[in-house]
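URGENT: need a sanity check before tomorrow's submission.

F., can you look over the Protein kinase domain-containing protein record below? I want to be sure the sequence and structure line up before it goes out.
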Amino acid sequence: MQDPASSENTLIFGKYRIIKRLAIGGMGEIFLARQSDTLIDRYVILKSLLSDLAANQSFVEQFLGEARVAATLNHPHIVSIYEVGAWDGIYFIAMEYIDGPDLAKLLGAAVRARRLISPPLAAKIALDAATALEHATEARDADGNPLNIVHRDISPQNVMLRRDGVTKVVDFGIARAANLASRTLTGQVKGKLAYMPPEQLLGEKVDWRADQYALGVVLWELSTCERLIKPGTAHLE
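Structure tokens as predicted:
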């Protein structure tokens, strides 16, 4: 694995040492960090909640509840959630670090090189992601009750390809909270509409079929290196 850190500073977040901030999103900040304790030494991704959202107790409860359910998923093509909790008043999720690009970056590189992604690779990525979604759909709790886990935000940004060729679906348990966050902060839905089925766009209840629809759009884009729905029509501004 390539070393992602050019230099490590000393900002400590509980058991995690922050290396650098990767992004700021609608829900909070995303960091590359290193977990170093007596038993484990590994890179992780930390996602922390914005302070405005952390002040909303009902949102926090939903965020933590859904993330903890998603943390029960154990599948080779789903990014592992290591910890869900709080430190010094900051709510966070610690998850597996993936050494490799997401599909958005892969598609961008293919377009710049004026080359198509090989059909076998596109098919393998889609099949691996489909098995991850199926696993989530069939997941049950300790008592055998269905968990009914739906991702709700399958897109090229949320499917990654590790450098050894392993596909990983990221952000299970976060999409619904992200949607709630946009409503909480702005009063309107924001999201990647190009990958949403009509019932999701209408705000209706969705199930596993919404994820498979979105994955179908992703496969189409992997196969053509074009957007199925062109920029400017895929997002609510």
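My own read: The first strand starts at residue 12 and ends at 13. Helices lie at 51-54, 57-70, 103-113, 119-138, 175-186, 198-201, 208-224. If you see anything odd, call me.
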